[in-house]
Amino acid sequence: MTKLSHRDPKGRPLVAVTGLGIVTSLGQGQADNWAALTAGRSGIHAIERFPTTGLRTRIAGTVDFLDTEPLVAPALSQRFAEEAAEEAIAQSGIGTKGDFPGALFIAVPPVEMEWPQRQALAEAAAENGDVTYAGLQRAAATRRFDPWHDLFIFGTVADHIAERFGTKGSPISLSTACSSGATAIQLGVEAIRRGETKAALCIGTDGSVNPESLIRFSLLSALSTQNDPPEAASKPFSKNRDGFVMGEGAAALVLEDAEAATARGAKILGYVLGCGEKGDGFHRTRSSPDGAPIIAAIRAALDDADTLPQAINTINAHGTSTPENDKMEAMGCMAVFGAQMGTVPISSNKSMIGHTLTAAGAVEAVISLLTIANGRIPPTINYAVPDPGIPLDVVTEARDASVSRVLSNSFGFGGQNTCLVLADEPA
């Protein structure tokens, strides 16, 4: 390839993907996840890690096969991130000796003490039944809670990942709701385009399935209450959808300047051609009724990729299975794609793995690249009752197709919208 061919139409360095890693409730690694996704198998099940008696929602896509503390979100998030990063770095062949030659951008959930830790601290600090400042000082002096100091500081997960894999510069932690994982990828892309680094390790991770998070989302009426059977609860774009199902896991991508990757003989798995991000301050959970920010985010990604809508072969939907999100995403896609939208295959991985929250954008980017590599679109399961108000070509069984361009959507609470255009070859 000539030097010119390593630049996009806007003259910026092309950003290649050379490594992928993934952990979800369906399994650990690309092979297990891809086999389960294309078979239409669900990882959503009854929650076993804590009692759910009396709760409206008793199901989730938890990762139960890794040995770690199940009720401490930072610990879970860190473990998932480590597993995903290890797979991605091994595949890329770069930085495999704990000396990754680039920056770390990692999406993590908001970090705070959960109820079990708060209860233990309150009990240790109580004086005659009341928690006092003096009691808290006395509890701290016992040094019993020192390990929590490390767990519950925002950025600590990034510090541990940076130390383990030897990334360069200050690790960047971010938390932009459900678009976080996609935003981590966007930051890596932008750093490479600016020439600040030749490589970036981009991760989205989330281990937030705990009683407090479950109840908070339930109080927002955001979760499905169709607990039986668990695997049928998440039904994106269906008329009888009633909310999302919490999931957890992580995904990692190794991004490189395409010229540098080619020079070292790396196998290029695909390219991140475009990123679009638009904010929406309309409401903390609802989208703007006119869909303008969602439409703008999709168009921004296409424009950044110098790609026309008709070049997109399939859409990896945000597709949460909530009445609001699915309607607004469909409106946004139809506004951008027009009459073509009825023939563009669209699918939501959340129907099988649940909503992995801060990890979702990265998880779905990995799945989008696997879709390109395998020429097979995973299905949206549980699509038995189509919504007549959402006239989309929803993929209900794994579909073989020639896929060279994927639009991957991520739309978060608080109006944080990020879209990616992923491809097999440069434009």
Structure notes:
This protein is an alpha/beta fold and 427 residues long. It has 2 domains: 15-112 and 152-423, Thiolase/Chalcone synthase (Peroxisomal Thiolase, Chain A, domain 1, 3-Layer(aba) Sandwich), CATH 3.40.47; 115-151, no CATH class. Helices cover 33% and strands 19% of the residues. It is built from 13 helices and 18 strands. It has helices spanning 30-38, 73-92, 115-125, 133-141, 146-151, 156-165, 180-193, 211-219, 258-263, 292-304, 323-337, 350-353, 360-374; strands at residues 15-24, 27-28, 45-46, 59-60, 103-107, 126-127, 130-131, 172-174, 199-206, 249-257, 270-279, 314-316, 345-347, 376-377, 393-394, 399-400, 405-412, 416-423. The strands form 4 sheets. Strands 1, 2, 5, 8, 9, 10, 11, 12, 13, 15, 17 and 18 form a 12-stranded mixed β-sheet that branches. Strands 3-4 form a two-stranded antiparallel sheet. The chain has a two-stranded antiparallel ribbon with strand order 6-7. Strand 17 and strand 18 form a beta hairpin. Helix 2 (73-92) packs parallel to helix 6, helix 3 crosses helix 4 and helix 10 crosses helix 11 (323-337). The longest helix is centred in the N-terminal third of the chain and has 20 residues, at 73-92. The protein is globular. It starts with 14 loop residues before the first strand and ends with a strand. The mean pLDDT is 90. This is 3-oxoacyl-[acyl-carrier-protein] synthase 2. InterPro entries: Beta-ketoacyl_synthase, Ketoacyl_synth_AS, Ketoacyl_synth_C, Ketoacyl_synth_N, PKS_Beta-ketoAc_synthase_dom, Thiolase-like. Pfam families: ketoacyl-synt, Ketoacyl-synt_C.
